[in-house]
Amino acid sequence: MNFEQANMDYLQDLSGGNTELIREILELFIRQTPPDMERLAAYIQQGDWEKVYKQAHHIKPTLAYVGANEMREELQKIETLAKNELELDTVYGKFCELLPRLETLYDELKAYLKTL
């Protein structure tokens, strides 16, 4: 199964192919990431650099589990900009670019879950 945003290889390796563990991780990701992103959006809107940095740092590793490495790199850029209190417009723009890609990722993961 080919995906635009996700790559299940890492999760397959991490879980040893345990489909129940994969299911749990994906369901947790789908359930927890949207509220995490909502918090990140609020912190960006507030211009709270420290919270933006910490929230981006918190979300970033979860994207690695589902092989969304390009999005992980974008969150790293947001994290770095926030840590250095640079370019609020750039941070906001990068965040806005991530949202539709995350929706695609959620759809891909839900489709993958149906195959387990």
TrEMBL record:
The keyword Phosphoprotein applies. Residues 18-116 form the HPt domain. PROSITE patterns: HPT. Pfam families: Hpt. The keyword Phosphoprotein applies. SUPFAM superfamilies: Histidine-containing phosphotransfer domain, HPT domain. It comes from the Bacteria. Keywords: Phosphoprotein. The modification Phosphohistidine is found at H57. This is Hpt domain-containing protein. It comes from Parapedobacter deserti.
